[in-house]
Amino acid sequence: MNSKNLQQDPYMPVYSWVIITGAILFGFFLLWRFKFLALILESDQTRLSVLIVGLFACTCLYLGVSSLRLSRYKKILMDWIMDSGNSPPSGPGTEWIREHLLLSQQSQVNDGNHAEALHARLVEKVHRGHNLGWFAVDFLIRLGLSGTVIGFILMLSTVYTLQNEEVSALQELLSSMGAGMQVALYTTLTGISASLLLSIYCKVLDRFADNLVGDIVRQSVLGQRRPGNG
Fold first, then answer.
1. What distances in angstroms separate CA 229 from CA 47, 87, 223, one per listed residue?
2. Stretch 108-121: mean pLDDT
3. Cα(6)–Cα(74) distance, rounded to whole angstroms?
4. N or C: which end of the chain has fewer CB atoms below 10 A?
């Protein structure tokens, strides 16, 4: 089989994850250097921003493991192609690849009646490793918006505690309302920023996962056309 279309480095997903993570860490360094992180921690009474950052860090590590998994699958597929693809790839974690190739051959014998179902199954298998990342993208946005609601509740609750109309009471009211507004704005900003960065990770992994699916489908078709397989 011709492997010229599979000459890209199989560890490109890992390299991409490292580059994106390095850029994010540099951004965090700048935020720390200019004391913006300290400002958020001091202003966010609910500590939702800390929770969002913690979940963001955990999801980044999870996506790093997912990128390594994709790279390993790509490497196994490339090694199989370089070995002329005489038999399905072997090794830990390749059961679903072997199963897809065998099912593809059986589908070809049955006039390809299940080709679309097999393709959908392959896409689900390949993308399953980082689907949780897209869930985290949506969850962090919602968590940031919940901070907005909490901030407005804190802001408006001070109105009902106002006992008199003295200047000092009004100043205290404005101060409390400002604190509530800070909670609303900073949690929303943190949630949206974290979800945006995670979506970049997920988009990159989706691209590599789609390329892997295409390579597996291509090799399964070429394998079916080889003499002795048709």
1. 61, 12, 7
2. 63
3. 9
4. C
